[in-house]
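Database export, one record per block. Field names are fixed; values are copied verbatim from the stored entry.
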Amino acid sequence: MGGLFRPAALPLALAAGYLLQLLGVLLVLTPCVLAGAVLGVGLEAALLGRRCGGVARRLARLQFSRPVRQLLRDALLLGGLLRVDALRPPGAGAWLLVALLACWATHFGCQGVAGRVRRSRRLPFVTRNIDTDGLRLGHAPPRLFGGQGTARLVAVAAVVTAGTVVTAATGRAWWAAGAATACCAALCAGTLLLGLRLLPSRRPVGEAEALEWLEDWLTAYAPTVGLYFSGGASSAYQANMWLSTLARLEGRPLIVLRERFMVRKIAATDVPVLCVPKVAHLMQLESSGLAVLLHPANSGKTSQVLRIPTIKHAFINHGESDKLSSCNPYAKAYDQVWVAGPAARERYRLADVGVDDADVVEVGRPQLAPIRAGSGPPPDGRITVLYAPTWEGWTDDPGNTSVVLAGERLVRTLLADGRVRLLYKPHPMTGSVDPAAGAADRRIRALVTEAAARTAEGPVAGPGELARAEAALHGLTEPGFRPGADEAERMLLQSAPPADRASRVERATAAWEQAYWDAAPARQHRVVAGPPGPHPSVYSCFNQADALVSDVSSVVSDWLAGEKPYAVVNTSGLAEDDFRAAFPTAGAATVLSPSAAEVPAFLAAVRDPASDTLAGARAALKVRLLGPAEPPSLERFDRAALALRAEAEAHRSRSPQAAEAGREEARAVAAADSEAERAESDPEPDAEPGPDAGHTAAGPAASDGPGHEVP
């Protein structure tokens, strides 16, 4: 039914269904009554789909919710049966009315019990990779009774409507009465089974007992360093890029989240994950012994954890570039700011945003270890170019992304060179702020896809290899929850992982990425993004490419790890010399104008190392941006974490009164926020916010980024 109507046309179709029923009642036309009822039930089923969710919400805001619509439909249906004298014998007609009313009463009773069951299963925290024994978690109730009230109502309406169709055809009301009675019995049984879950022995522990369990777990685990993250649904990549680094640090790491939905957005990791939505409960971290929290992004909720005086906080960002957002004044709220190399230190000094130079620590970029150094272009001159533009950002600066002003021209110019293979990997947030960027991105994808169809030549790996590799990776990284699993059930199933899972995931990821590249001809152009599904990381794309075309973003800094040629697109309106002076990461790049006139010369330099005059500049800039090769970045990062941990423990021993001050402030904050927290809705399980959720007056969760997902 959903395919027959566009979402915008559904309200008109609903009105048509009611009009048919009304005409049938007034004109005593049984087919009209039944057709209108059947049409209405079909449309309600269509409204259950994601495509029509906006229509359903708008109707509800107009006080024309699903129960109201179905009540009106049932009233017209009964009225039509009465008019055609189909409710015979009288006893059966009366029984139909009673059974239908009982269905409605039981449905609303089931809704109330289901809400209590959901609340009893909603603990004050969410976990992953943590053994949840002691919380009395169990499997979620069937969705039709435990969560999907709208689907349940549609199912009952469908059965009752089917019974009335038979009643109208036979003139016997027992058919409709029997259908309504069967629905009522099913609803009663489902409600009773739900009610049994509220028995003390069947429900999870209460809030106080759960928090006591959490305190015991934190004491036993004794985390030493944590990654703190809060943000919107599309910002999880900012935390995911640090997972492998966190897992390799000395000590006992912990991931601390604030939004419940984010637990499912965090990529595969063996590090314990703890989501604590309420600020009052967050203060339990103070007594856990946790000494250091690392922050890959700024958000409004960051200020809440900064109140804990016994924890030292370091801002590690999720990528460094020459953008102003890489020197956000919010950084001065942290105890330290960890940067990759000397260039970032200088950037903070020049920005003069209140960050003391003594608090800036150079740690390199541990995530860049998978990037291979360039070995020179192929002798036949066939090169691969990666175009990885950043997104439009939160400002109106035309220099943020090249997609709008130069993207199509750049792509056409690159595709016109028959010896270029183009990989296009846009930032995942492209188009989320400026619709023009989204439209340009779609046009670029179409250009690359069309050109790819003309370059489909060369050997291809077996078609089943990619599917097998993806299935193997999926089996390790996706828990395979059943559709009705709720938060508590996922906590139960995602307990402590096997000891070797991390290494198996790493090997499976490498095998899948290789299968991805082998699944298409070696010279075929590729769009490495969308439709929904897994795609190689930007670092995997780096290893496929001989040259990069990008914008002013941290993609450029990371690319320099391989010391291969790159170009930066200048859409800022600045002259080239001024552009290089303003953005030091472009110092070793070929600067491209929006006209793309410089592309042929750039490609020639990529193909001929002898004419590559920027090789020395790239090597020097790599050290300036990313720091020295020795000691390795991970070692420097670990040293910084250990040093900050020692500082936190020394501070804690010197200032025992700080703990009590922190607790007092936490209680004050909790009291101020309690009203807002009580107003938190109880939605259908696991509703997810939009991509901009988590952005506050403190600044967007995405202060800057690498532009692409990183495993």
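Remark 1: DSSP finds 27 helices and 14 strands in the chain.
Remark 2: The longest strand covers residues 383-388.
End of record.
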